[in-house]
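Two entries, shown back to back:
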Amino acid sequence: MPLHRHLGKGREFARTAGDHATDMFAPLTVIGRGLRHHAGWAKGRWQATPKERRGPTLFLSAAVLIGIYLLPHGLLFALVGLMASAAWAGRAPKAAPAPPAPDVADVKLAALYSALTPYLCGPEDANPLYHFEGSYKNAFGSWEFDGEGRLSRLELSYPAYFTDTEPAARARIEQVVQGKAGRAREYRFDWDEESNRLRITALAPLPTDITAQRFVAAPGEIVLGFTDEDGTARTIPVQQGGATAQQPPVVWRTGPRSSEPHLLALGVAGYGTSSLIRSIALQALPYADLVVVDGAGTGEHACLVNRPGVHTVETSLHGALAALEWAARETERRLAALNTARHTGAALPEDLTRPLWLLLDHPTELGELARAEGRPDPQELLELPLRHGRAARVTVVIADDVEARDRITPTVRATTRARVLLGPAGPEEGHAALGAPLDIVPAAHAPVGRGYARIGNGAPVRLQVPATVDPLDDEAPAQLRDAVIALLPHRDSRTEPASEAPPRPDRPPVVPADAAPPVRPVDLGKTEPMIRSRPIS
């Protein structure tokens, strides 16, 4: 007989023996399953019984067992009852294993592939990379998901005929990817036009618990906020959450040797442009003089009134025009004195070496009021400080609403090479505000102070402005208000409680005659005043 027939008969005999064994031991399997069920039930009841009741329960169980043992044929009836209950409890078949959970990549990447197909599928493509019956594995090269199952990194290919050089076409793809991957996060899109590949990276949130404080920076360096680790090659120590941490800052360098001497900050309403102005003012006060113009008239900068180094804080059109006219004349005076000192070889006077900062918050609102009254726009008075401010050590900072960018004069847009954009904005608004395309798609809901910064010709980077609240705002947290008050030059009774007055005596003190001070003649001549007069009335 051939060998394969012997092997076939052996396999058939083994299969038959196995089936008979299964049929023979099936009752034992059912009883064993029921006994395991009873043992688990007894263990659960024992663990659920309080410790003070376990002793009586154990004694009662032993008495029942002894009673069964003393009964005639008690053990036999107990064993038969136990086997019957075990067979009843074990009659249900073993539950089928739950089906495995679907792979998160198959679900989410397939949905993203289907959403991108209408935009990346060409009707005349013979071998399309994206089609309605295709697989995402043909177009997506690599991907990563975080611990919560959210897409954190993706690299995909797109056809060569896709117009990746047009901002509108890119914006459509970026919007689809953000909608499928989650709108609560920011994404960086790296378009490789040479190889037709797109790299998408989900960015980690920036810290929002950094308050106003003295930053480690040289005079003339302003810390606008903090960014990602790859956004700058420098870190500074900051107080964060009650501890000291190293964070990468966005540093804006000002002064005569700066290529970006002036700053323009645009933002969505309620996202912290006034907080940025306060943060810059607190950093510049130790070594510079300030002129603040609050065009909105909301009193956001009232905490700077009558502070050393602050010439004036104006909220009206008349006061703003007077302050800016004085700033223009001061710029001319500084330029003339600087040229004279250079020609004669003399040292620069002290009033020339101390910088002057012009901080304007929402000046376009004053411009509309000035046009209604037939008066000059405050932005026109900034032409001389903007064009010659670097040589005269005059720095101009302008903050306004992103919707008012069309009302900003061309001179301001041309001379402010340091740009800041706060709040979620679209691709067109980001390009108009920063002067360069933004490769980061903002989140749908961003915290206050979150935005982007571009210094000169550099690439835009993410920015989180330090929490610099108005100390006169009673609704702001007390910890944040105290941090701002600690940075102000001197104490102010409007923001801090006044010290208690000393107790008044019941009667005037008696001074002995021999302790009376000698009589000195009174000099009625004029001397140099003790308080320096303010340049602006």
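entry 2 starts here
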Amino acid sequence: MSGRQHKETETARRVRARGLAAGRSLASVAEEIFETCSPLFGTTRIKSHRLSNGIALADVIEQVRALFERDGKAIPGIGETLLSAYESGLKRPGPEYLHYLCCVYRVEPVALGYDGPCICGHGHRMPGVVRGGDLQDGRSDTSPVSRELLVLSDGGDPSTGGGEEDENVLRRTLLKLLAGTSVSLDGQVLGAVENIRRRMDDTMVSATVSPAMLDQWEESTVGFGRQYMNTPPLRLLCDVLLEFAAVRKAMERRQPVDLQERLCRMAAQLSGLCGMIMIDLGDHRLARSFFRTGRTAADETGDRALRAWVVAREALVPLYYGDPREALTLAKKSRDMAGQTPCAAKTMAPVVEARALAMLAGSNGQKKDVVDQAKRALSRARTAFSQMVPSEQEDTAFGYTERQLYFYQGDVLVRLGETLEADVVLEQALGQYEGEPLDQTLIRLDLAQCRLIEGEPEEAVQLATRALEMIEKIHRTELVIARVNELIGGITGKYGEIKGLDRLREVALDRAQLDLGDLVGGL
């Protein structure tokens, strides 16, 4: 312990002793410690509560772990480094950790120095409460702090700087989702999303942050990548953007070059992940904006593989929502950026090329030439995949997996009309997927397209309807529904109205009333 820390602890110990002798509450003692120590040592409110309890970092961590265990949750990876970062103000606790810290100290987020309500939506003042509040007997916390939380949860606008209100919008969205309330992707949420992204553009500078803290953020970034394929998009977007905002704050101050590069890498990855989520949600404008931010951040790292990955992911925007010719151009640009570096983009870029070429094949007079080009691109992708390191072959977001390669190869073959080969490849892909509803649904819709091409429209309708019914409404994203509408258009254009089409339309429209409270079941 440094001399400064020792003086801080000794001062807090004296304040605590006097307060307890006078019969004051621990919360009141914590407030006095903050008022006494903050001007002298920069003590934060959250740290003052630990000092008022007279316990060490390790004691708080064990209590948090015990509460997770009591709630039947996996033991978290919180450690002294992360808790110390909270206490020093370098990082803000995520919604879940903040809830459990409030439970440990039996206070509300405001008392710990954080605006906005807790995700549990209740008080933490009663001894032994883990989930907050006593709902059984109908009592509620009518303290000033509780009343302030209720105002915030109803859309209050606390005076905050540095974009904190945008983060509060996302925290309130999370609160509503976890409470089972229906939430839509409205202008306020989209505005917060765009503001956070723009601030990252504005603050591509440097900051001071510990290497240990960067380790924690990098682990979180990798974790978000693992969640990408099986977490509802809007739920994941809130989590990713809150981490994105924390990284941006760290970049506002000067830092050593090596730490700056790591922060820029995380900014590029989180921006790219946000762009991918916005594609799923159907907002191609915001998707492009996030990829542009990701490019800016990736350029700061000088990492060819990372820069190529952002551009390859960006190519999916025009592939799904624009001109396949633009997708082809971006894919070739990504391939050139990657050069001879074995990486995910070197596999992904030729796959995007092949898909764009397959989409152009139907309108190109020289169809055979386009088909040959697409198949050569797939061959390059398979070769590049074999050169990737195993860790990248298992990463669905920042790498490229074998099942993704099979899926997109099958998608290309469907669009080229090679249905026999496509059936085999798509079935192989489907057999490798587990718990990833988006790609599984798209594969089943490709199999339905095969049936349509082979002249079996009724079977195509049945396959597509089953594909939608197998997933929750929250996973029926704009991307999925666009593919369904493409199938319906192909059927009606060739066969008119057939049996089962009304049911398929009904299931597709059902997602229009998105009940985002369904997310709670997956948490």
